[in-house]
Design a protein that fits this description.
The complex is a heterodimer of chains A (357) and B (287). Chain A folds into two domains: 2-225, P-loop containing nucleotide triphosphate hydrolases (Rossmann fold); 238-355, OB fold (Dihydrolipoamide Acetyltransferase, E2P) (Beta Barrel). Chain A has eight helices and 20 strands. Chain A has helices spanning 42-50, 92-101, 107-120, 136-148, 166-183, 194-200, 218-223, 228-233, and strands at residues 2-13, 16-27, 31-35, 57-62, 65-66, 77-80, 154-158, 186-191, 203-208, 211-216, 238-248, 251-255, 261-264, 273-278, 284-287, 298-309, 313-319, 324-330, 342-347, 353-355. In chain A, helix 2 crosses helix 3 and helix 3 (107-120) crosses helix 4 (136-148). Chain A is elongated and about 80 Å long. The two termini of chain A are 35 Å apart. Chain B is mainly alpha-helical and 287 residues long. Chain B is built from twelve helices and no strands. At the A-B interface, strand 6 of A face helix 8 and helix 9 of B. Chain A: The complex is composed of two ATP-binding proteins (PotA), two transmembrane proteins (PotB and PotC) and a solute-binding protein (PotD).
Chain lengths: 357, 287
């Protein structure tokens, strides 16, 4: 059974579509990421699931039940807010126990649940503190404990790690994923950070301009992006535009404007104008004329424009026929390319992915 | 010059003007009044003044003073109650339901009365509340058979005039604390299953209590000593602690008694503040 179902949901603010015919299904126990730039519609979608935003069209279901007529406080959701939204006048224990307290549960039961949750987020002993007396990371864990307190059907996280500094964020990514697995709760979270989306999500929906660009496992989206936006928002990509000039031996030949040609295993009709994406780390850089690695039938030539040294890798910006191409080279050998040197870039045809522009 | 001497000079130089100002405008007049309140007569024009506790004992032994002190406390509580009853919801709507330019315009309208003289405002009420005044005519225009009524020179007239005068303070202090409550806090409460009533009682009210308390203090304290509104709007009902004190200074010329009554009023204010102190401390330390 799907935990959260979104079908044909649309929301307009004036004439601007914040959500434009969005459909997706979140499975039971899944950690589902909504990734996109600001204004992409991901936060609107999260708030529509929570009930803070009423869609103009379409249907949202939670645990199989349509929720359009169910008010927020009856939807049985747990939500963690970007600024945590901890109640400043209540103690940590009162914050975590709030949801049970408004459900009029016995005091002893609330105290026991608070104790369990504090143990889960590793903050036992902090019951009597006020939120302001705690660090950002601790506040974040309290907010998570509070969102889990009522055993909701779905956990909604709005930019869960956005307010933390880099080091703490990496720690919390791991911890958040661990807790989500242990509790086994269906989780939908919003982020604009691709690394966060990749590390946390079982599946990702990439959203842009109120529409879903692609839904899939992080690896699938990364390796087989369907649109140019998906390719460039999750990771980086080089794009080649050209015309299909034939197919044979299981590969499609694409003629580039400068006369060079590249090959892909994807299929396209002859004469079609296509956009092809190639990840920078799939390219192998080498001196012109050297034997290419077996299977790397794509070869283009370009002139080195710039080099950025990042320790474990080097990024080269290469001008390949008036077209900038980015190449990541692992820092494995002493081989380096100087400025203005003409080099050959080779890669396998199945790393050339045809995407919708 | 040593650094501690420099520090001392800086402290004196920076806080001196304030201290001097407070001494001249607050401490010295209060001290003079305190001395007067223990004297038989004001020692001016060569009159002989002697020490006495009579003015203070009079307050507790003569029913006139005790009765009117109680009337003033009651007036203060009632005016504060009505200001809160009207002002808090108004501030809530202003802070949470109205956005942008409309909010600015309404805030301007709320502070607009401060631009006019309070004496003029109070006199305007006589025209509204009198026998054939605006209020009576409006009501009779809608309900021609309504009984005739005359609110002017009654206790309710005093309450109406004072509520109108102090309502802006209540609205503004409540507005400031209400608009500081982030929407995400109420959203979090809803997401945890709270009803509208729960959200109000457990989140909004406790977080806005400092504003409500500040507004209540700003209303109660001046109303306790109010004398202008009771005098103009109250008629036979005008006698309050404030008007009694004013009389001692302007009509009876009994400054020592007026001073003693003034200090008793100050004591009443401090006593009431003391009673509320535990509540105040708990809720103001949060923010």
């Amino acid at each position: 059974m799907s935990a959260v179902g979104i079908s044909n949901v649309a929301k307009y603010y004036g004439k601007v579509a914040a959500l434009d015919d969005v459909s997706m299904t979140v499975q039971d126990g899944e950690f589902f990421g909504l990734l996109g730039p600001s204004g992409g519609g991901k936060t609107t979608l999260l708030r529509a699931i929570a009930g803070f935003v009423e869609p103009d069209r379409g249907e949202i279901t939670i645990a199989g039940k349509a929720v359009s007529n169910i008010p927020i406080n009856k939807r049985d959701i747990g939500m963690m807010f970007q600024n945590y939204a901890l109640f400043p006048h209540l103690t940590v224990a009162e914050n975590i126990g709030f949801g049970l307290s408004v459900r009029h549960r016995p005091k002893a039961e609330i105290a026991e649940r608070v104790r369990q949750l504090l143990e889960l987020v590793r903050l036992s002993g902090f019951e009597g503190r006020k939120p302001k007396q705690m660090s950002g990371g601790q506040q974040q864990r309290i907010a998570l404990a509070r969102a889990l307190s009522t055993n909701p059907k779905v956990l909604l996280l709005d930019e869960p790690l956005g307010a933390l500094d880099k080091k703490l964020r990496e720690e919390m990514q791991f911890e958040l994923k661990q807790i989500q697995r242990d509790v086994g709760i269906t989780t939908v979270f919003v982020t604009h950070d691709q690394e966060e989306a990749l590390t946390l999500s079982d599946r990702i929906a990439i959203m842009n301009g109120g529409r879903v660009e692609q839904i899939g496992a992080p690896r699938d989206i990364y390796e087989r992006p369907r649109t140019a936006f998906a390719a460039s928002f999750l990771g980086t990509a080089n794009f080649f535009e050209g015309v299909v000039s034939g197919r044979g031996d299981g590969v499609t030949r694409i003629e580039l404007p400068d006369g060079q040609a590249i090959f892909t295993t994807d299929e396209a009709p002859a004469g079609a104008r296509v956009t092809a994406a190639v990840r920078p780390e799939k390219l192998l850089a080498g001196p012109v004329g050297a034997q290419g690695q077996e299977g790397r039938t794509n070869t283009i030539q370009g002139r080195v424009m710039a080099e950025v040294f990042a320790g474990n890798s080097v990024t080269y910006k290469v001008d390949a026929g008036n077209k900038p191409v980015t190449v990541f080279v692992q820092n494995r050998t002493d081989e380096r390319f100087g400025p203005d040197q003409t080099i050959a870039l080779t890669w396998a045809p199945y790393h050339t992915i045809l995407v919708a522009a | 010059m040593t650094s501690s001497a420099r520090r001392l000079r800086a402290i004196i130089g920076l806080s001196g003007p304030t201290a001097l100002w407070l001494t001249v405008t607050v401490v010295l007049p209060l001290a003079a009044m305190l001395v007067f309140s223990f004297l038989t007569v004001v020692p001016v024009g060569g009159r002989e003044a002697a020490f006495t506790l009579k003015h203070y004992t009079d307050f507790f032994t003569r029913p006139l003073y005790l009765t009117n002190a109680w009337r003033s406390v009651r007036l203060g509580l009632e005016v504060t109650f009505f200001c809160a009853l009207i002002g808090y919801p108004a501030a809530y709507i202003l802070a949470k339901a109205i956005k942008g330019r409309w909010r600015e315009a309404l805030l301007l309208l709320i502070v607009l009365p401060f631009w006019s003289n309070s004496l003029v405002r109070t006199f305007s009420w006589t025209m509204v509340l009198s026998d054939n005044g605006l209020l009576a005519r409006t009501i009779h225009g809608i309900l021609p058979f309504a009984p005739s009524f005359d609110l002017l020179y009654t206790y309710p007239a005093i309450v109406i005039g004072l509520v109108q005068s102090y309502l802006p303070y209540m609205i503004l202090t409540c507005y400031i604390s209400l608009q500081a409550i982030e929407d995400s806090l109420t959203e979090a409460a809803y997401s945890l299953g709270a009803s509208r009533f729960d959200v109000f009682r457990r989140v909004i009210l406790p977080l806005s209590l400092p504003g409500l308390i500040a507004g209540s203090v700003l209303t109660f304290v001046p109303v306790l000593g109010a004398f202008m509104e009771p005098r103009i709007l109250g008629g036979q009902q005008a006698i309050m602690l404030g008007t009694l004190i004013e009389n001692q200074f302007t009509a009876s010329f009994n400054w020592p008694l007026g001073a003693a009554l003034g200090f008793i009023m100050l004591a009443i204010v401090l006593l009431i503040m003391g009673l509320f102190y535990p509540v105040l401390k708990k809720h103001i330390s949060v923010n």
